[in-house]
Amino acid sequence: MITGKQPPVTEEVRELARLVWDYHLLGHSLENSHAILVLGSHDPRVAERGAALWLDGKAPLLIFSGGLGNFTAGLWEEPEAVLFGRIAREMGVPEEAMLLESRSTNSGENMRFTRELLKSRGLNPHSFIIVQKPYMERRAYATFKKNWPDKSVRVTSPQIAFEQYPNESISLEVIIQSMVGDLQRIREYPKMGFQIHQDIPGPVWAAFERLVALGFDQHLIR
Q1: By its UniProt entry, which Pfam families does this protein fall under (predicted)?
Q2: Which residue of 28, 77, 186, 216 pairs with 154 in a disulfide if CB–CB is 3.0 to 4.6 A?
Q3: Which residues share a beta bridge with 131?
């Protein structure tokens, strides 16, 4: 959880953060798939994006995966998947089109517990659309491919630009802290067996190091 006084967001910080944001975005074009898998988070706009894709006919099955994680434990009273499922129902997605996985607390568990849930229902989708926050697209892809290397996957997120993404619930400071931490995980997690390897361009890693030096270090693994 990211709390407390945050470093100032100067113009230098904004420029560095845009560089990291752009790296996290994959820019995948979406194809009709067997399932839409929405990963839990503290941002309900992710659920709205997943539900909109189902309503657009991108896949017949909509899965929400998420218990209470790093950002929602102690703040939300119900699992992320339950809240996201309710948002989807309110948008017009029928109950029978959805599956809820409400135990997972991190990205690896999202994949593992969803796979177990699908197996228990006798389902074996071969192609997925993953929905996550923009600044977690790349990490979601790397985690999925580590856990499901034989499946086809595209990744997307709420279609909102960097400048417009902060709102009353998620500040720009928290977004930057999260992006910095996730970039470190993209580098370190393959060594731990959690994700596939992905190259990080030199200027992006230099931006990471500068942001950490400026105090954006609350979401780092220690």
Answers
A1: DUF218
A2: 28
A3: 38, 156
Q: Are residues 197 and 113 in the same domain?
A: no
Both 21 and 40 in a single domain? Answer: no
Strands, E, within 56-168: which ranges? 61-65, 98-101, 127-131, 152-156
Average pLDDT for 195-216: 98
List Cβ neighbours of 23 (8 Å cut-off, separation of 6 or more). Answer: 138, 183, 200, 201, 204
Per-residue pLDDT tens over the stretch 54-95: 999 999 999 999 886 555 445 656 889 999 999 999 999 999
Within a domain: 30: no
CA distance 108 to 64: 14
Same domain for 218 and 179?
A: yes
Question: Would you say the C-alpha torsion 172, 163, 143, 79 has a positive or negative sign?
Answer: positive
- 212 and 146 inside one domain: no
Chain mean pLDDT for the chain: 93
Same domain, 83 and 132: yes
Question: Starting from the edge strand earliest in sequence, which strands make up the sheet with 152-156, in order?
Answer: 98-101, 61-65, 35-39, 127-131, 152-156
- For 10, the domain range is 1-25+168-222
